[in-house]
Amino acid sequence: MQGTTNARVAQAKACFSALGRITTRSQFGGYGLLVDGIMFAVVAEGEMYLRATSSLESVFRARGMANMVYSKRGTPIVMRYYYVDEALWQQRQELFALAWQAMREARKEVQVKKQSHERLKDLPNIDAALERLLWRSGICGVYELRLQGAKETFLRLQREQRRLGLKVLLSLAGALAGYHHAALPTELRSELLTWFNAVIIPPRQDSLCP
Fold it and tell me: Which residues are 70's β-sheet partners?
């Protein structure tokens, strides 16, 4: 099995050489494939699996790719890595495009995690009161806020405190985009207003003033 794993690693390095210099490290009983320290795939038991983020899982599933299942102390764990079958290996351009997406999204995820040490109130529009409400809703850091996005975060906040209005939604979007809520780009503000009017019925007045 080690021989087939090594052969698959060599095949992957040749196929994805345009991504950059590919290095390996031990991972899940096989090898992780990395470019610039970012892991985008795993080779285990002679097979390769591409790394997925939340935005890529639907793409991989739509193509019929199955999750990697890793056994840890006899317990099967479903991983966010997706199986590359022989048919996909034969479609080199498509495979490279998927690997490039996996690499790009993995890099984004790592960058966001590096920012997770920031306090929420260090972002624009987030004061101590809104930060505490975010904590109560289960969003304790910048990383979680970015993963959820402004709309989903707003809905979670409403479960904690119903009397929240448009200003809080705009403040969350501004915090994520780096704007004061009053200076949001017109297109983004319009999109949020349309969503708010369609989903939040009836509109409510803010009880927080970020």
Answer: 77
